[in-house]
Amino acid sequence: MDSKGINELLERYRKGHCTADEKKALEEWFDAKAEKGNWEWSQPEETITKQRIKRSIDQKLFERKSLWPIVRIAAMLFITLGSLLIFRNDIRDWADPVVILEKTALEGERIKISLPDGSMVWLNGGSKLTYPNRFSKANRQVNLVEGEAYFDISHDPSHPFIVTSKNINTQVLGTAFNIKAYRYLSNLQVAVTRGKVCVSNSAGTRSAVLLPNQLVTVDSQTGVMIQRTVDAQTVISWQNGDLSFNNDRLADVCAVLSKKYRLQFHFRQAEIKDYRVTAGFISNEKISDILSILASANGLSYEQQDRMVTFKKRPR
């Protein structure tokens, strides 16, 4: 086979136009050359071969250069989309900042609130609650600034629900409980109607776990926690306008009555303030009947002049 025929065959082979017989002939020629070691080229053959080699290399480089911008753009898009997925909450907070909402129930008023996660809150009179318009990815946290509230929390194990009030944290996953945290009272109370609740101080040095029909009292001065069993339904009877007291100090009972009936109280003997009261009164109970019951149950007498009520010990 002469050099011209070989060149034409090589060109057909390069373009993929060779028949099976032509491929076989070309391979036999190549094997014969390799066996003899005879690879002498004429000047035209060498020039043509160099040009073909250069065209082949240039074509490969062009293909790589053409793909590189596409690869770079794809990589940039991948990084951008990945960042958006990772930081989507931070980006959302930047574009649409979280807003803290505030709800207040006036004295004698009771209101119902629906939280962003579907949990429900009932506020007693003289109470204030603050909460975000959407909860964070870590937890669901609200603040009972003042007063009393009953919480019915949607179950979500991955996002604990936390109520802060008077340096006390009440944490749950999904349950129903009542918090009484008026500033004018000497303690904070948490009672559970359903589920399980963990109550702890902000330092984490004291805590109590409550089950249904259990109540914990946290002294506002000392932080001491006292846990006991109660009828939780009586604790939340305030939703019907009733009054309920569970081993409360007489001073705290009178503080509640002072708000409801606009009275002032005086104690002739200081120790009377610490007398304990467990009682319940319906919404339309007369104040005179309530005062009589409180006095009788504690061995006291009382006298009222206008808006001032004075309790004193009965003479023996």
UniProtKB/TrEMBL annotation:
Residue span, Protein FecR C-terminal domain: 243-310
Entry annotated with the keyword Heme: no
Chain segments annotated as transmembrane: 67-87
Highest taxon in the source lineage: Bacteria
Keyword tags: Membrane, Transmembrane, Transmembrane helix
MF term (GO), any: sigma factor antagonist activity
Keyword Zinc in annotation: no
Record domain FecR protein: where: 107-197
Record Pfam families: FecR (PF04773), FecR_C (PF16344)
Alphabetical list of InterPro entries matching this protein: FecR (IPR006860), FecR_C (IPR032508), Ferrdict_sens_TM (IPR012373)
Name of the protein: FecR family protein
